[in-house]
UniProtKB/TrEMBL annotation:
The keyword Metal-binding does not apply. SUPFAM superfamilies: FAD/NAD(P)-binding domain. Residues 9-306 form the FAD/NAD(P)-binding domain. Belongs to the NADH dehydrogenase family. Residues 383-408 are annotated as: Disordered. This is FAD-dependent pyridine nucleotide-disulfide oxidoreductase.
Amino acid sequence: MRQNIQQHRVVVIGAGYTGATAAGRLARRLRGEDVSITLVNAEPDFVERVRMHQLAVGQTLRPRPFDEMFAGTGVELRLGRVTGIDVDRKTVTATGADGPSDLEYDTLVYALGSAWNTQGVPGTTEHAHEIAGRDGALRLRDRLAALAPGSPVTVVGGGLTGVEAATEFAETRPDLDVSLIARAGLGDWLSPKGARHLQKVFGNLRITTHEYTTVTAVHADRVTTTEGDVPAAVTIWTTGFAVHPIARATTLETGETGQITVDATMRSLSHPDVYAIGDAALVTGPGDKPLRMSCASGVPTAWQAADAIAARLTGSKLPTISARYFNQCISLGRKEGLIQYVTADDRAVNAALTGRLAALYKELVCKGAAWGVANPTMGLPTRRRRVTADRARAETTAAGTTAATEAA
């Protein structure tokens, strides 16, 4: 006869691409009577972060409320902003409409992700806009809509986000004077074919490019660079991402970037009851290179963590999901795109898809990623395994032993 056990409490914090995916996958792997899964998020609906440049120019995005996405799965949504984590007491503090409250967990999945990185450049916080999240994209939408024809709009950052933003703005608002400032050459990470196509699209959209230029200050009406001032009625800052600072405020082991150090199963090296996924995790990929912060590398870490948690709780074989790259999908407005094929460790190869077909490819990728989150328990075999009392006890004991050792 099966021994009764208390439900193993899994708390997932952050419901972006990775957190929502992990919660849904866990619900598919484990029995609800054995495990409770709580998903903590500040907003009641899923945000397609890869489309924030579209939202900023006034395009309408399809709503994806979590109560519909997780209906019938057993995943409980707790609305609130994570304001504290005590990994030694194993509690998460979430602040919602009714104030702060603590959630106890047996296993924590940390998926708080990242936000814009100002790089400490003076004036950025006060005068620049960001599109790393919905609130920032909506503020930028209002600002762009109020601009008169001929107004200068400057995008700082020549990476994927900056390129997508500049081309979206220029295509939607050809009456604006759009420019992009890049610290290196435009598309210098691409293959020759890819770089030529990117430069062609920029030329057709009349985007001014300031290459090999570093921004040293941002003002209300301009940006100061190493090559002089560039006019900017609106400045959009896209120079990379910075992880949520809350991990560094805990006793979790983190790297120089503030990302949580993990093993191959996404388990924290310092606290075995914590798993970190997506941008929050410092994950070593092919070629011993850290995976870059992106949806493409984040979702596989969510699969790995969810499957590893399920395996450890049920006594199954630990899975291994290979985290590698295949291509970089870049939208260049709604009519143009660029698919740069890459090696496993993200280096461009001499092959690229361009033009309208590439734009359709990118759109399918975006829709596929959103569908995977909106349908978290579909497409997987039904293999809800039983959690054994011994396994649940072993996981809790291992975590407690580590905490006690560190305290000593």
